[in-house]
Specification:
mainly alpha; three-stranded antiparallel beta sheet; 5 helices; elongated
Length: about 130
């Protein structure tokens, strides 16, 4: 069964929490191409949310190319998702890096210093 954790005090709507967690599981390889994911009813029951909420999440996942849903068969991890998702995430990262570069330029923070800061964040708390 999928391990989906719903937070009631998150800034994200519940369907987005479901969507982002399933996307992360697909990206990490925890869910493999062709693998079945739970029916909307089964997932809704296991995480105690409305079927409509899960339906919205599944519709978004299908629209974004992460799952394929077939009437009568269910929903499965799609094959084409990984590159698409990485491209989308790279675009978001580029927007943040562009903003950081502009702040650095306007505030006289050297490129070396910004690079050093980025490297620290990227490596995390290792």
């Amino acid at each position: 069964m999928l391990e989906i954790v719903i937070s009631n005090n998150a800034n994200k709507p519940i369907y987005e929490q479901i969507t982002s967690q399933i996307k992360a599981m697909i990206m990490s390889g925890e869910l493999q191409t062709g693998e079945a994911i739970p029916s909307m009813r089964a997932l809704a029951k296991s995480i105690h949310v409305s079927v409509i909420t899960v339906q919205k999440a599944y519709e978004d996942l299908q629209r974004d190319g992460f799952i394929d849903t077939t009437v009568g068969r269910g929903s499965f991890v799609a094959a084409r998702n990984k590159e698409f998702y990485q491209e989308e995430q790279q675009r978001i990262a580029e927007e943040h890096l562009q903003a950081a570069a502009e702040i650095g330029r306007m505030s006289n923070i050297s490129l070396e210093k910004l690079t050093e800061i980025l490297a620290l964040f990227y490596q995390g708390d290792e």
